[in-house]
Design goal:
- This protein has strands spanning 10-15, 21-26, 37-42, 47-54.
- It is an all-beta fold and 56 residues long.
- 5% of the residues are buried.
Length: 56
Amino acid sequence: MAKVKRSDHLIGLRCTTCKRRNYYSHRNRKKVERKIELKKFCEWCRKHTAHKEVKI
């Protein structure tokens, strides 16, 4: 049976250009203290843009 991931580690990733939440991910809050910023594809902008971490 698959393990269920806890929602307290769940974060949202928001596009920096159009400000839409496109992705959801997990992170270890004990090891990673800074906010995550990843370059991902935005379906609304139709290009790769930086996505920053936001609260859910």
